[in-house]
Each structure stands twice: as C-alpha cells, then as structure tokens.
Write a structure and sequence with these properties.
Blueprint lengths: L7 E5 L4 H10 L5 E6 L7 E4 L2 E4 L2 H9 L4 E6 L5 H14 L5 E4 L23 H23 L4 E6 L10 H21 L5 E6 L3 E2 L1 H9 L1 H8 L3 E2 L2 H11 L10 E3 H7 L14 H4 L12
Parallel strand pairs: 1-2, 1-6, 2-5, 6-7, 7-8, 8-11, 9-10
Antiparallel strand pairs: 3-4
Helix pairs in contact: 1-2, 1-8, 3-4, 4-5, 6-7, 8-9
C-alpha cells in the first residue's frame, strides 16, 4: 500500500487525562491523529472522585491543530464491540493506513480509590476490565490487519505500577497486569510483520485530576507530585521510541515512561525530571520466552 500521509495515529481515551496528553504531546506537522473517546463537545465535564473535570475531544483536536497536525474527533463507546468495528472500518475507508495505535482509555469507577476491601466496592468496577483490557484486545484485533497491510509501526498500551503492587484493589491490578502480558504476547504474533508491541507505565501525571487534588490539598500532596510528569510527557516519550531505529528491540517489553525519557534525555515541558517509582512501587516483570500452542 502506498502511503499518502506522514503518520496516521489512533489514540483512545483522548478527551482527558493521559490519553489527551499523549495526543497533544505526539502531534507533529502533517500527522493525522484520530482521537477516540465518548466526550466530544467543548465544555463537556465529567464527575470523577468528587471532582468536576473537563473532558472534550474538541479541545484536544484544537490543541493538536495548533501544532500543524490534523486532529480528528471520533466519539465512541469502547465497551461496544460494534462501535469498535465501526471505528476500524472508518479508519480503513478514510485513511487507508494506521501507523500507530495507542490504547489509553480506561473506565474509572467512583469506588476505585475508596479505602475499603473489594467486597465492599461496587461490582460495576468490572467495567475497568471491559474498557482498558477487553477493548484493547478487540480494537487491536480489528485494526492489526490494516496495520500489517500499511506497514504500521507500533501498538502501545498504557499501564501502571498497579500491575506489580497493590493499587486500588484487585480489579485495577488485574487490568494492568493483563495489559502488560497482552502486550508481551501480541509482540510474539506481530514480530514477523515488524510491528512493535509495548506496554508503558505512565507514572504519576499532572492531569486534570491531580490538578484538582493539588488545588485542594497542595501541602499534603506537594512531595507526591514533585516527580510527576506533564500530560504531554508520555507522548514525547512515545515519539522518541518511534524515532529509534532499534524500536523492535523493545517489542514485548513493559517500560516505565520516566526511565525511557531519561535514556533519550527528554526534557519535560516545565524542565522537571519525571521520577521513576520503581524502587517504591516495583518494576515490570520479565516473562518467559517459552512458546506453547
């Protein structure tokens, strides 16, 4: 397939949080960045952990366009298998290629950060598995053939230290651990097609939620947020990975964004150096190279 576009990138969860930051941090002139999430219109807000948070694909797209890239807002419910299939058909028809797929969406329930055991939390927390693990698999399944045909480069899934330590309870931990293992296994299947599969721990990010926390509890969380990365930092890290001629050497790996950024000498927007929490929260596990069919 002959490529007509510089890079076609799909990023889920791009209306707020890490996904929004990745979309804006990755944007380069002539890129086409498809931003997928439920919230579209400017001024849209969601309630999360007691906060009212701005959540708008239109805002993300506007910021992308300012960088000379072309942002495309695509409204989708990632818990719907049919809507995932519709998105894959749309990308194939409209762009004919997909170079980079970033899974950043995660369905967050209000009970998630409650300090109580799992049996006292809502069963609706299972939605974290639906959007953030199942949706990652279904979307990858639908789009990988297009990526193979158009010589795509990278499938990356956003994960966290919750894969290795107790963080927010069993469902959150299972989703993150599952994400890391799925990226590892996908790498084996993708290797013959030179498509890299990575899981990336984004670490603490100064997004809309942490900004609200900082405003209300500044002194209490000041030390905690010292090593936090900007929203755009993970996008800058992903760009550096994509520009590495040895990208395939990372396939199947779980990486920590702060450590990758340090290796590439990436300066964050505020000249802060994001901190790796490996020592306190643990590092990624090494999976076996054994193969069983």
């Amino acid at each position: 397939m002959t490529k007509k576009n510089k890079r076609v990138i799909l990023i889920t969860g791009a209306s707020r949080g890490v996904g929004k930051g990745i979309a804006e941090g990755m944007a380069q002139p002539e890129d086409i960045i498809i931003c997928a999430a439920r919230s579209t219109a400017k001024g849209t807000t969601v309630h999360q952990f007691g906060f009212e948070i701005q959540s708008s694909l239109d805002d993300t797209v506007e910021n992308i366009n300012k960088k000379g890239a072309k942002g495309v807002a695509y409204s989708i419910d990632l818990s719907s298998e049919q809507e995932i299939l519709d998105l894959s058909k749309y990308i194939k028809k409209e762009f004919g290629q997909l170079d980079i797929l970033i899974h950043s969406a995660c369905q967050i329930h209000g009970d998630l950060v409650e300090s109580k055991p799992y049996w006292e939390k809502s069963l609706d927390l299972w939605s974290i598995i639906e959007v953030g693990l199942k949706s990652n698999y279904f979307l990858s399944h639908a789009l990988t053939p297009l990526m193979i045909d158009s010589k795509g480069k990278l499938i990356l899934q956003i994960s966290s230290h919750g894969a290795m330590c107790y963080m927010h309870g069993p469902i959150y931990g299972a989703q993150k651990a599952g994400t890391d293992k799925m990226a590892f296994d996908m790498a084996y299947d993708l290797k013959p097609f030179n498509i890299c599969s990575i899981s990336l721990w984004s670490g603490i990010v100064k997004d809309e939620k942490t900004q609200k926390v900082s405003e209300l509890h500044g002194e209490q969380y000041a030390e905690f947020l010292k090593g936090a990365a900007s929203q755009e930092y993970a996008g800058m890290v992903i760009n550096a990975l994509c520009n590495d001629k040895e990208l395939m050497d990372f396939s199947g790996k779980t990486l920590i964004a702060a450590e990758v950024g340090k290796n590439y000498d990436i300066k964050d927007l505020d000249s802060n150096t994001p901190k790796s929490d490996r020592e306190t929260l643990g590092g990624p596990r090494d999976f076996s190279d054994s193969v069983v069919y």
